Amino acid sequence: MANHSTLKKTSSTESSPSPMFLLHPSRGLIDEKFSLIVQNLSQIQDITLHALIHSDDGDYWEAFGHYVSDATGFVNVANDSSLGGTYDGVEPMGLLWSMRPVPGSRIGLRLRKKEVHTPMVVHISVYRGHMSQGFREQVALASVVTERWYMAPGVRRVDITEGGVTGTLFLPPGPGPFPALLDLWGGGGGLVEYRSALLSSHGFVSLALEYMTPRTSGGSTSHVGNEYFEAAFTVLKEHPQVCGDSIAILGLSFGTSVALGMAVYSTVIQPRCLVCVSGSHVQPVKGSLSDVFGEINKYVYYHMFKDVYENRVIWRDLLLPIPTDPTKKVDVGQLKCPVLMIVGEDDQNWPATESAEDMKQMMEKEGNSHLLTTLSYPGAGHLIEPPYSPHIRASNFMVAGTKQKLVVLWGGETAPHGHAQEDSWKKILSFLEEHLYRSTDVTSQSNL
């Protein structure tokens, strides 16, 4: 997928060549690092590097760093420090993970790729001096474009409605069979595809499942039950390109609750491993998953405007203190598969740190703590996404099954959150490879 890209402005004189970018790769996966060099600058020249994205929602996002060229007129983002801007220090990918809405944008924005068959197009420009605003009013010294993809060449996207299941299946190129994942997002609802597309680009079949939207039948409305997730797992298990005994579940936020509950209590779902991001095992375990939705929604409504910080709603206390009543949390002592827990220590939405500690104690008591690996990141918030995604401290949130829109505080600080995303993603992929490729029937191939 990689290729080189250079672009420079026309020189006005033979003796003073225009600044030029050296960018590699100009096309790559969203989680792939690029190298960025500016050459033909004056010696010890102040410049600003500026990155701009026009999102699928029609909004503009930007990041910028202040640099000083060396004695040869070079700036190498991999080695040189940003002296200011939206990030500081030596940060090779700071132009991506520090992105924020341009001044004057709508409030509560979150950058999420909706059309995964198209790239995230990033325009990078270099300006004279150290600028922090007014980029549109200035003429850039040089510009270059890089495409950031979630879908690698050959990955196929398939709409799924089989067995009443609603989702999108992503298939790596080739006949397989491949290891697979059931991809569960959180309480915001809707069908979110970009993480599944990226996982498929790394050789996994991935089913992005839509499960938060209430179903209407016979004049009544209800949430999906346990059988819905069992049906989705069966769709994966029976797919001809999936190795049926090498299936994992990846959950974010409420998706973690579902993953843990299904792994412990379902007789149909038997995952090879679990990846749980920013979630908890705390939930009422008696009854169906519909009852869990109802119980949590009651807490949410009670706290909707009770806990507010910086005019943002915080929900991390909804599940605190961690209950001692065994009917109010998943009995993780009964887990039989490896679990990777990823925790942001500044998570303001879920008590992820406290939950991970309680899970550890429960599993130690039952003698299965060797199955638990916890990655805990200081300064990281709730929305731990694939690497180089912008840190979102707070954003609009539609309460599932309602018309109530809030601005929710997710937490985290930009730099440590960005670093947590990069580190955790590498370890997620390694964890999945370790536990899903154990079967000799699984195809191991790179799609990059």
Automatic annotation (TrEMBL):
Q: Which SUPFAM superfamilies match?
A: alpha/beta-Hydrolases (SSF53474)
The Acyl-CoA thioester hydrolase/bile acid-CoA amino acid N-acetyltransferase domain is annotated at 31-162
Residue ranges of domain BAAT/Acyl-CoA thioester hydrolase C-terminal in the record: 227-437
Biased composition, class Low complexity, residue ranges: 8-19
Where does the record place the catalytic residues? 253 (charge relay system), 347 (charge relay system), 382 (charge relay system)
- The ranges of region (Disordered) come to 1-20
**One GO biological process from the UniProt record?**
acyl-CoA metabolic process
- What domain of life does the UniProt record list for this protein's source? Eukaryota
Family according to the record: Belongs to the C/M/P thioester hydrolase family.
This protein is called Acyl-coenzyme A thioesterase 4-like
Organism equals Oncorhynchus tshawytscha (Chinook salmon)
What's the name of its gene?
LOC112219231
